Amino acid sequence: MVPPDAAALSTNPHATCKSNDMSIPAALALSAAMACAVVQASAQELRSSRRSISYHTIDIGGLKTFYREAGSPDAPSVLLLHGFPSSSRMWEPLLPLLADKYHVIAPDYPGFGNSSAPPPSDFTHTFDNIAGVIGELTTKLGLSNYVLFM
Fold first, then answer.
1. Which of 1, 32, 116, 150 has its CA 20 to 30 A from that of 85?
2. Which residue ranges does the record assign to the AB hydrolase-1 domain (predicted)?
3. 136 falls within a domain
């Protein structure tokens, strides 16, 4: 099925993508992100504020893991994972825009951003190991149900 175009999303805020491969929470998060991108608003209305973002570190298997957090912990959670090479800083303009409706977490992978950079002898930088660190982070933060956005 073809997803709705940007014009349909901007005129109908309840329009969603329907696909057998996409869960409802994922479709909602995608809709929210697309709505932020296509809704016509003045720059003043969309200006992000760092005041709504908090910055934390947590120990994951001996690694200092940094993450940015915004929104109420009681709201639906969205986990924002950065690309390579990057850091959670790439999400900073988006965090305050989602914080009114979502609990948003944006971590730095080991060796990226403000997380510790262990030597290769102490940590093998594979996708499996990075996924393990992020999995442990979600467990320690009590995120049992969340939308993953990359």
1. 32
2. 76-148
3. yes
